[in-house]
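Project outcomes to date are best conveyed with an example. Our students and postdoctoral researchers have been running inverse folding experiments weekly, and each run begins with a structure described purely in tokens. The record below, which covers 864 residues, was selected by the lab manager from last quarter's runs and is presented without edits.
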């Protein structure tokens, strides 16, 4: 009997060991990701499913599910990280018309993202912005230069945006035939979204004609879904035809999933679901909003967390648990696709070493991309390139020595940045360069900082005290003495002071200010995190969020009176910390001293424009010409116009380097400047790229991805989404600089093209053969552009880009360029069937160097 009992016990133990060793379906790396996800979801409780549907997805240890952050950014480098490689802002990359180089840029970005993530995993760290789902690219159409986020896009043209976006996704996600995705890319913001920023949480867009929807606003999204297999789509904030985009059954259900066959996941913009009841008032509460969003097709919610009420929505019959399962299966499928649920040895991307980050190869790539963004708009009497043997060159302007401007927005921080002043200095001998800031970006005043009138503990300046917690709690890590305006950031892995955490810290800055004269003093404070200014114990100024927003406070002070100044700062959430603080008397910006200072200069390089501190996403800032991150005026700020005018009147030759993420109306500058170089926000090597162009070490070949207008009168109302009168495709007046325009230091001749056929059926494409010659004295690159016009269709675009090709040619060289134009080249909206298709009729092919009619030649094509 004992023997039988022993044998039975042994058998049971063996069976138990066999069962425990058995691999469950979701753990089997050989099964398809969707099958694994379906099995895993069947084992989850409703509460656990909801946890996985939020951008910060907490771990579920019993099933081996790790913490995962859906929200990371990689707009032009792995964002909110440091140090990383920082490439030019996307609108600048679009100016390159080089989608192949864009692929290499984002292949590098995804390498750095994986490498950083591999290091974070080794440290057991999982934070927002540190994960493998990156919400890039932004393929909205930059329909109006006033939109602050247009810098994040690839311009105003649907075809160019599609080409660039496809390569971004391919670079981020890795080879299509790989078992695991390198990253998950995200096409945003779906759809019909491009400002204003101030109304995006309440706006209801109802004026979009079907032609505009299908020919302008949707093509790039369709291209990314069907041609690059993008794994995520982000729905936008606003309503489209009365339904919020994240609860829009037509957008997410009919168009995205049914018509286009998108089978992956939809993420909400941050706070977009709570907007259903807080902004749009289309849902009564979080339960109804969450049910509406999920049933419409939204799978992951970013912040706000109305999704916490999904169990209530299920209990009240607003939604069924099987609908929740559909979303969770979609999102878990993508997590399996990343390999983050599998052992590292199975996933090749986990082997990418940290040494790729900020590698020399990536720096060279950033420089090459920076060079290709450079867009020469004017060059009177061939003043450029400049000679390095000039006796004196004056470099002036508010962006000359502005390093952070080059980083754009949604950025990381590079290990090293070459700003424009340093780039120019690197080309010349010591003593050749005269530098002066000359003026502010927007204000007609300059702040004379008063730190020399501040003392504490018998020492000049401000005492800084730091704690490695967010509550100013002992022990103190370090105290420091600061004698110049505060400008700190943890981006680039920089500490505010020695021994202070990069995250989870607080600081106090204290001093006694004793002015020598009675006067009006202005205090300026900005930062990410939480910053508050106290004067004599009273809170007078507060700022802080995930964006660095400038604030100001004016106070009349009396001579020989002591004022206790204190700034309290806390790093918050997972945002990188930054703090800027200064105060002093503001004096008018006058240019007599500047003119005298540069009187011996052979040429003045004025580096101005605007900056990402002025244009960007939903910024609570109001300055002349700017509101909420958008622009209310598209001209160069008046103080800069006046400065350039003063230099011109003094007889100086002026080269204007304009830095902006959007088009600037610069009619006076075309008259007052000898040359104009559009430099965008050109990344970590931007200063070197600018200098290379100015001094002829690189021949510029950038072409505008947006129209540069003459004035505001050429623009329709910002709130209108009708394309009538917008962009080169529907504009009938003459712009300042047209879409596709860009000069070089050589000349090209685009010869007469031939088409393989001029009569085709609607399923045929053609081949266009174009001779191109470099007729100048320098090697250079031409950007050949092909546009299409549908004749006898008054509602169709004036012309629309359908092909382009960069053609590098040595001086005197010729090349016969062959462009294959598929049948869809001739697709336009057909109002009869309400679809985009090729219809019989007459068309024109327009080919040449820009969208301007004077730069184009034509061939007529008939479709039968």
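After processing, the design step wrote out the following sequence:
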């Amino acid at each position: 009997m004992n023997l039988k009992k022993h044998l039975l016990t042994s058998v049971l133990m063996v069976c138990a060991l066999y069962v425990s060793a058995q691999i469950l379906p979701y753990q089997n790396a050989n099964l398809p990701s969707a099958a694994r996800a379906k099995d895993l979801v069947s084992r989850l409780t409703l509460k656990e499913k909801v946890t996985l549907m939020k951008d910060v997805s907490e771990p579920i240890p019993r099933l081996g599910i790790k913490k995962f952050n859906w929200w990371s950014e990689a707009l032009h480098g792995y964002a909110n990280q440091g140090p990383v490689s920082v490439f030019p802002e996307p609108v600048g990359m679009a100016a390159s018309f080089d989608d192949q180089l864009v692929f290499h840029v984002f292949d590098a970005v995804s390498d750095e993202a994986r490498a950083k993530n591999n290091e974070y995993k080794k440290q057991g760290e999982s934070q927002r912005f540190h994960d493998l789902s990156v919400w890039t690219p932004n393929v909205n159409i930059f329909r109006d230069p006033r939109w602050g986020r247009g810098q994040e896009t690839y311009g105003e043209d649907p075809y160019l945006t599609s080409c660039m976006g496809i390569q971004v996704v391919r670079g981020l996600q890795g080879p299509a035939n790989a078992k695991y995705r390198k990253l998950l890319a995200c096409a945003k913001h779906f759809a019909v979204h491009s400002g204003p920023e101030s109304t995006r949480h309440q706006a209801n867009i109802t004026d979009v004609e079907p032609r505009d929807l299908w020919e302008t606003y949707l093509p790039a999204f369709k291209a990314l879904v069907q041609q690059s297999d993008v794994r995520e789509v982000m729905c936008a904030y606003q309503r489209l035809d009365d339904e919020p985009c994240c609860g829009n059954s037509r957008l997410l259900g009919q168009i995205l999933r049914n018509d286009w066959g998108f089978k992956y996941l939809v993420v909400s913009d941050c706070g977009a679901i709570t907007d259903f009841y807080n902004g749009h008032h289309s849902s009564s509460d979080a339960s109804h909003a969450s049910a509406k969003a999920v049933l419409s097709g939204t799978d992951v919610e970013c912040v706000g967390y109305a999704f916490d009420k999904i169990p209530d929505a299920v209990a009240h019959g607003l939604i069924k648990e099987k609908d929740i399962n559909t979303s969770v299966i979609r999102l878990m499928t993508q997590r399996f696709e990343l390999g983050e649920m599998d052992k590292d040895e199975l996933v090749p991307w986990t082997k990418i070493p940290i040494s790729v980050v900020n590698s020399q190869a990536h720096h060279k790539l950033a420089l090459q991309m920076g060079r290709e963004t450079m867009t020469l708009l004017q060059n009177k009497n061939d003043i450029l390139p400049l000679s390095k043997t000039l006796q004196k060159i004056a470099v002036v302007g508010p962006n000359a020595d502005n390093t952070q401007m080059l980083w754009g927005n949604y950025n990381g921080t590079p290990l090293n940045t070459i700003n424009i002043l340093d780039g120019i200095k690197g080309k010349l001998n010591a003593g050749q360069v005269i530098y002066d800031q000359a003026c502010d970006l927007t204000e007609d005043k300059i702040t004379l900082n008063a730190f020399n009138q501040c003392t504490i503990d018998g020492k000049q300046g401000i005492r800084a005290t730091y704690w490695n917690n967010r509550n100013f709690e002992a022990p103190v890590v370090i105290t420091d003495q600061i004698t110049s305006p505060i400008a700190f950031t943890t981006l680039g892995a920089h500490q505010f002071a020695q021994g202070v955490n990069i995250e989870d810290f607080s600081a106090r800055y204290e001093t006694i200010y004793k002015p020598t004269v009675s006067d009006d003093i202005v205090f300026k404070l900005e930062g990410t995190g939480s910053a508050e200014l106290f004067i004599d114990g009273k809170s007078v100024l507060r700022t802080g969020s995930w964006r660095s927003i400038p604030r100001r406070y004016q106070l009349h002070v009396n001579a020989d009176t002591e004022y206790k100044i204190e700034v309290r700062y806390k790093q918050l959430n997972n945002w990188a910390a930054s703090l800027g603080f200064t105060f002093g008397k503001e004096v008018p910006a006058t240019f007599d001293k500047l003119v005298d200072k540069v009187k011996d200069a052979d040429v003045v390089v004025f580096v101005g424009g605007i900056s990402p501190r002025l244009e960007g996403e939903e910024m609570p800032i109001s300055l002349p010409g700017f509101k909420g991150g958008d622009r209310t005026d598209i001209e160069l700020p008046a103080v800069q116009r006046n400065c350039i005018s003063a230099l011109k009147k003094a007889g100086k030759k002026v080269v204007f380097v304009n830095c902006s993420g959007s088009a600037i109306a610069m009619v006076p500058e075309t008259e007052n400047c000898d040359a104009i170089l559009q430099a965008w926000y050109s990344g970590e090597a931007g200063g070197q790229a600018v200098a290379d162009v100015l001094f002829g070490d690189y021949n510029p070949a950038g072409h505008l991805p947006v129209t540069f207008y003459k004035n505001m009168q050429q623009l329709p109302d910002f709130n209108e989404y009708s394309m009538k009168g917008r962009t080169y495709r529907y504009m009938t007046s003459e712009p300042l600089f047209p879409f596709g325009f860009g000069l070089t230091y050589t000349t090209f001749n685009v010869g007469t093209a031939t088409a393989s056929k001029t009569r085709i059926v609607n399923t045929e494409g053609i081949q266009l053969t174009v001779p191109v010659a470099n007729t100048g004295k320098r090697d250079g690159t031409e950007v050949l552009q092909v546009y299409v016009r549908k004749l006898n269709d008054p509602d169709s675009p004036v012309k629309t880009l359908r092909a382009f090709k960069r053609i590098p040619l040595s001086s005197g060289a010729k090349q016969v360029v062959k462009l294959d134009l598929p049948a869809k080249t001739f697709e336009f909206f057909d109002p009869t069937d309400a679809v985009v298709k090729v219809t019989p009729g007459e068309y024109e092919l327009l080919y040449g160097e820009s969208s301007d009619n004077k730069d184009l030649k034509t061939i007529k094509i008939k479709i039968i």
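The chain has four domains: 27-59+195-338, 364-444+590-730, 449-587, 748-863. The first helix runs from residue 2 to 21. The training component of this project remains on track.
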